[in-house]
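Re-run with default settings, no changes from the original entry. Doing this only to confirm the output is reproducible before filing.
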Amino acid sequence: IDLRKNEAILNEEKIELDSLKDRQTQIPNWLVLLRKQICNDLRIEEEDLPFAGELLKVKEEETEWEGAVERLLHDFGISLIVPKDHFRTVSRYVNSQRMYSEGRGRKLTCLEANIENRDNYRKQLEEDSVVSKIDIKPETAFYSWVETYLHKSFGDYACVDIEDLQHISFGVTKQGTIKNSKIRYVKDDRQQITDRRNFILGWSNIEKIKALEETIVEL
């Protein structure tokens, strides 16, 4: 039983590694395949439908918070950003198709983006704000929209220790405890917070490739 389980994991990791070597981003292969299917069928350029994680990265001087930020922004990072002009077509397509990849049904989140609206919202950020630790990919047509989304959705989240977390409504610790109301704390340790194989933010996957190569050798 253990042998079959490890053989399956090994095969998945090899597929993921091959996929990463053909690109620069850290988005999981199954999501890349889903987007490819959508774009091929609808004749849309893949760069017109980016995943949020492809446009964000943790600043180099903030690497000690990288795992925590990755955990907090994970769901947003694997969301497909769909420009308003394409959203009706894409949403109808997704609704009519079974989201299926690598032999299993999948969950896909799409966000409608009005990238023509330049009246972006910017919140006055505190020094310890999560958003202040993130870079947006320069020269992307989605820059203003992504910045607005970050400020609205994550601008109130502070990077703090567990003692300070008691006194605020929105925050995250380096160990990955997330507080998103006055009373709700979440710590999801199903995956190690430092495991780079699970990282999805950024436009360089060199470190993720190294982590996968090490895992494959162990398997």
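Residues 55 and 140 are 8 Å apart (CA to CA). The two ends are 15 Å apart (CA to CA).
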